[in-house]
Every structure is written in structure tokens, then in C-alpha cells.
Amino acid sequence: MTIGVCSSLLVVLALLAPPPPSMSDDAAKDLEGLHNVVAYHEGFWSGGVPEGKAGFEQLRSMGVKTIISVDGAVPDLELAKSMGMRYVHLPIGYDGFDDARKAELVRAVRDLPKPIYLHCHHGKHRSAGAAAAVAVSLGWMTNEQAAARMKVSGTAAGYKGLWSCTAKAAPMAEAVIDAASASFPEVTRPESFVASMVAIDEAFDRLKLAEKAGWKAPADHPDLAPVADAGKLADLFRLVDEASLRKVSPEGADELKSWMARSTTAAAQLEAALERAGKTAPDGTEAASQRAAATARMAGLAADCKACHAKYRD
After folding, report:
1. pTM
2. How big is the CA angle at 309 (ends 303 and 313), to the nearest 5 degrees?
3. CATH among 3.20.20, 1.20.120, 2.30.31, 3.30.1330 for 193-312
């Protein structure tokens, strides 16, 4: 096949390819290997983690030059580099992020080659909150417009910290952005196993307080956000690596891995139930059903944690 024919074929394929998500979209898009993709500016998208080769090929077809991950998991650097894309790894929590991390994200989006794809795991909450705060900080949209885009992404009301980051964002002076770190790390390693277990215990304790209050923030702890804590719990279980488990117990690593996988699923189901309950009338049958489902997931998580601790910690 001649060069001219090849070039013509590429042009035809480009014309046939669906257009990338735009600011005019009023719903998130699912593309090949990418989920929940939403535009937050021309050439700046939020969405879920690229799934395998198909996800990265989809990003390449969108012209993406830089991928920014705010998820805790280590990015697939090799696949990204094989397709000419740079990865930057700046994780944030389900409860939001501080000014230093916001400034790093803003500088990365301002300075690195565009188009840019910013993702978390599912693309609904953390990446949307980060993209919205960045867009406001760069003067691309107002706080209200950014919040509206988060709703398009599907960010649940229960992620109070993420909504607060967007509400408090304001255009940043160039000098302030210039002062932020420009190291742009490819990988930020997850916390140690011990630190992860401490964070799991803390999130679980906050969830128990919310459960006692009928899955609401209790009066003496109005800052609690049970949906966000459930999401954080799922993430913490998901990110525990096998090497850490083998250090805890070489002979029991497979059982521990199975427990972590089951707990990841249960915590994700807890998060989903609480998210659904928050979208319905609090005194309705559907909300009551979802709260009951959340309580059942908590009971399962508590039982697994107790059994795991008895065998490997206590």
C-alpha cells in the first residue's frame, strides 16, 4: 500500500470516528475503553481509568498528549508511553484535596502538552472534582459552571469535600501557579500497608458513627460524609498490594488477598447503596431499602475485618 493510500485511509478513519466529548454535552460518554468521559474545557476531559490497550488507543484518537491520574493506583506507564503519551500521578482523596495539591494539578494542566485527560478510577467523583477546581482556578469557568459539569459527571452530593474544593476555588495568579511544584511525578507510591490499615480503621469508625445515626452525619459530627468514606474504604482495600500481604504472612497471602478483594467489593456496594439512598426521598421506601442494604454490607465488612484481625493481627 502506498504512502498516499495510507494517508487517505487515515483521513477517512478520522472522519468516521465519533467526535470527542464536548462542553455542549449534557451527559457523560462511554467510549471504547473509557467510561464517564466529560469535557471541562476544550481539550481537557475527566473520566475513568483507561481500560487496557483499547482505552489508550481511544485517548490517542482524541489527540491526548498528557494523562493525569488522581487515583491511588500506579498508572500503566508502559502502555501510555508506547502511544506517545505522558503520565502524571497526583492522587487525591474522596474527601477532597489541599491547596498544595490543587496548585500542582493546576500547574500540570496549564503547562503540560494538551489535550489532557484527567482520571480517577470510575471517573465520577475525584477526577470530576479535580477537573472542576482546576477549570475555575485557570479562569475557564465560574464555580457554578464547574459544579454543573460535576453533575454531568455524576458526582454524588455525599462527596462534600470534593464539592467544597470546587465551591472554594478561585482564579489563581500566575505567580502562585509558578510557585507550585513542577516535578510532575509519573508514579506516587501508595501508602505503606500499616498506614493503609490505620486509614481503613479510621474510615470504618466514621462509617459506624454514621450508621448509628441512620446513615446520616450525626449532630455531633456534622462533617462526616459516609458516601465519601465508603468510597475511600473501597479504594484502600483495592490498593493493598500482594507484596505487602506476603510480608504480613507468606503462607496466608492468598487468603488475605481474597479477603481484600471481597472487602473491596463490599465497600463499593456500600458506597453505591449510600449514593442511591442520597438520591431519593429520605422517608421513602427506596431510601429505606438502600440504607438496609448499606447496613448489611457494613455487617459483612465488620465480620471479615474481625476474622482477619483474629488470624493475622491479634
Report:
1. 0.84
2. 180
3. 1.20.120
